Input
Amino acid sequence: MSLFIDIFKQRLPDGWQAKTMGGRRKPDRLKITAPDGRSANLTLLHQDRLDPRAVLLLLLRKKQQDEPRPDLVAAPFLSPEVRRRLTEEGIGFVDSTGNVRLSLAEPGLFIETHGAERNPNPRQRPARSLAGVKAGRVVRALCKRLAPWGVREIAAATDTGYVSRLLAFLDKEAFVERGKRGRVERTDWQHLIPSWAEAAPLEKRGTRFSCIAPRGLQPVMGRLEQSNLTYAVTGSFAAGRIAPVAPARLLTLYVQDSATACRALGLRITDSGTNVMLIEPKDEQLSQQVETDDKGVRYAELVQVVADLRTGPGRSPAEAEALQEWMAANEEAWRG
Output
């Protein structure tokens, strides 16, 4: 525990002090004192390991036993998802790699520093990750469906052979809730999509081609209405028809063949002045599983669009937030 407290003390502003109280080996309180003498006593919790599922169980157990929630959690390593969940619950944290966050209203104090993103001393190899084509198919399917379904149904719907192992990973990360027979009863899509986007960013979706539409984007959209191409609009143009933030300046398309798309849409490959991005995806389903508007334009599914925006250029992350807020308020419009 002394290691964590030393790391925490090193990040305090000048004149601030921190002192542990309680047991010598595992103190359960931390007193923070400001230079003017004002102080706060924090409930301190030490964990050898902590995953997202354990965070939820910990908070539930504390609530059921009518015990105070911890104000600060210390552990050897806290993953990005664990830190995200603790932050949402208003719980501070410190780990041995330097990931530290604490927000106090009285006395006023805010500390946030970043350490390792990956565990430097993993006890075992992770069972699975969210990167890869098949993981993406499962994620999209889970986010879109409301009704409970089992492993075989998910495997058949996504043409994926390792669903059991991936679901075990998702369960540990608290992205899904499973019943006694292993059926997925609920998907926490609001946490799952951002984590999937981080593991499989837009730049890794496939081969990208920067293009320019010499006459602007509206003529390109007009050609798409009449086109026989297999494509899907994603990014800003796809989000803007539902939750616009600002006029879209970059048109991003999943296409099966970039050369064919360039000829059909009047585009030129360019190194500068890009206003169209073509992506030949690793997963052909990205240009096949689409939603068509009343003009016949094909758009990627919303789950895919918001994930692409989260790691896209410019204001894309802000557009992702706006779209995800709309999705949260209108689940009945896109989940079934």
